[in-house]
Design a protein that fits this description.
Layout lengths: L4 H13 L2 H8 L3 H15 L4 E4 L2 E4 L1 H26 L6 E7 L1 H4 L3 H10 L3 E7 L3 H9 L5 E5 L8 E16 L19 E5 L4 H12 L5 E6 L2 H9 L5 E4 H6 L5 E5 L5 E9 L6 H14 L1
Parallel strand pairs: 3-4, 3-5, 7-8
Antiparallel strand pairs: 1-2, 5-11, 6-9, 6-10, 6-11
Helix pairs in contact: 1-2, 1-3, 1-4, 2-3, 6-11
Length: 295
């Protein structure tokens, strides 16, 4: 069996794109060439890997096994390349770094320091809509390390180092009855609609968990993965929300009021990585730098 690493990369690109035309563009090859590569893979393994229906691509059972193995093989190949690069003193290499857009601006200082210390390391930033997607990418060996908010769903498989903690505040429209309170308790939310993050966000899990522990079932009216849209909905009096303090500070609108929670809760940002795999040299350097900055 003769399968090229590059062909496995093309196969995964096709899986992620679910479309031959889009995948071919991302791979910088023609669609007929990509079709021949996939056909060659199928011939090599003796199994059909894809169902092809009107350009829509779906994995067969064999295709799902191939996807899982391809991610592990490519992950191990990447790690070997990074170890070889490290023989020259971490002067070159790649760091596959996962990040969620909601927290990206808070990490600029750390990433700037990293680039200054290791200018030869290429940062390959992968943005995800929520922390759960970052976790799955790590579990699938598609990332070396990732920034996310705690808690993690895959805590048996992932280790973490807490970077910073920010208070969470209640976001209210001006002249709302709760604006007169000094602090907001979970029971105060009961009569009002609530706007929650989508299920990809760790904050959604945390807020749901803590409200349930307080005996309050939130009246969830909307879900959103965009903090600015979430704040706009609060402004329009469509519901209440809970936002991290750094996000609140960016919202200059005079139509919003922010109140602390009682008991106080925090938004904990962390670096996460797989427990069962050694960190690549570049990922180790990023973790070490974050720990030095935290002391």
């Amino acid at each position: 069996m003769n399968i090229l690493i590059r062909n496995l990369q093309h196969f995964l690109t096709l899986v992620e794109s679910a479309n031959f035309t889009k995948a071919a563009e991302k791979c910088f090859i023609t669609q007929p060439t990509l079709s021949k590569i996939i056909q060659r893979l199928e011939d090599n393994v003796g199994q059909q890997l894809l169902h092809r229906n009107n350009q829509k691509v779906e994995l067969t059972q064999a295709g799902k096994l191939m996807e899982q193995s391809a991610r592990e093989i490519l992950g191990q190949w990447h790690r070997l390349q990074e170890e070889l690069n490290n023989l020259s003193g971490l002067k070159s290499g790649h760091l596959r770094l996962g990040v969620c857009p909601m927290m990206s601006s808070l990490l600029i200082g750390l990433l700037t320091d990293f680039r200054q210390r290791y200018p030869g390391i290429e940062l390959q930033m992968h943005e995800y809509g929520g922390g759960l997607s970052c976790e799955l990418a790590l579990v699938n060996n598609s990332l070396d390390i990732a920034f996310t908010a705690l808690p993690v769903a895959h805590d048996n498989e992932l280790a973490h180092y807490t970077l910073s903690r920010y208070p969470l505040q209640v976001c209210l429209p001006e002249r709302h009855p709760l604006c007169e309170k000094e602090v907001i308790r979970w029971q105060d939310f009961a009569p009002y609609p609530f706007i929650l993050y989508n299920e990809q966000f760790s904050l959604a899990k945390l807020i749901t968990q803590l409200s349930n522990q307080a005996g309050v079932k939130l009246n969830i009216a909307f879900r959103s993965g965009q903090w600015d849209f979430l704040a706009t909905m609060v402004e329009a009096n469509m519901g209440l929300a809970i936002l991290p303090e750094p996000i609140c500070q960016r919202l200059a609108s005079s139509k919003l009021v922010f109140k602390p929670m009682e008991p106080g809760i925090t938004w904990d940002l962390a670096l996460i990585w797989r427990k069962d795999l050694p960190l690549t040299p570049a990922a180790t350097a990023l973790l070490s730098l974050s720990q030095v900055r935290g002391n």
